[in-house]
Amino acid sequence: RAVLSLYYFVFCILLEAQKTYKGGTIMDKIRIGILYDFDKTLCTTDMQEYDFIKNLGMTSDAFWGEAAAITATHEVEKILAYMFVMIKKCKEKGIPLTEEYLRSCGEHVELFEGVLTWFDRINAFGESMGVRIEHYIISSGQTEIIEGSRIGHEFKAIFAASFYYDESGLPVWP
Question: Tens digit of pLDDT for each residue in 9-45?
């Protein structure tokens, strides 16, 4: 139902855009950006729950509970708290928390039905209306996990949480 509502919304925008488009090259076309959240919007739960938390040998409740406790105890913003827990738990388990590792955690992200074909369908529809569609992510999740998902390549830009990595490829700051 949500995808149908989004499709209808984009259709209405495209109809308006088509009225103002007078031809020309693709660079002259009107561009429409669609902004998406990722967790529980394109995928069925929080992205860390597919592989990352499982690889730690933890339950989702234990992982998120530890992050929530840090937030409550130290008044740390919740995104920074969960990223701190990611670093801490990976060190404890001997898992190198690299960009490559996080991208590999995106490989098994379960997408909602229709998401895999959505981008080709809406891009083609936009093209038929004389409009170029661009896709963006705004998420409190991990950039690298999104990039490693089956749809990571579909986004012009991903605005999400990411670590600052040192010269050895390990995070030094969330």
Answer: 666 666 665 555 555 554 567 899 999 999 999 999 9
Q: How many beta carbons lie within 10 A of that of residue 127, not counting itself? A: 13
Pick from 53, 37, 44, 46: which is nearest to 85 by CA? 53
Helix%, strand%, coil% for the chain, nearest 5: 50, 20, 30
Write down the pTM of the prediction: 0.85
| Distance (Å, whole) CA 163 – CA 83 | 8
Letter for the amino acid at 148?
G
Question: Which residues are within 8 A (CB) of 115 and not within 5 positions of it... i.e. 6 or more apart?
Answer: 3, 42, 43, 151
Query: How many other β-carbons are positioned within 10 Å of the β-carbon of residue 53?
Result: 22
C-beta separation of 122 from 34 below 8 A: yes
Q: Read out DSSP for 22-64?
A: ----GGGSEEEEEEE--BTTTBSS-GGGTTHHHHTT--HHHHH
Q: Is 78 helix (H, G, I), strand (E, B) or coil?
A: helix
- How many C-alpha atoms does 96 have within 13 Å on its Cβ side? 10
Q: How many CA atoms lie within 13 A of 81 on its CB side?
A: 16
| pLDDT value for 173 | 82
d(CA 21, CA 120): 22
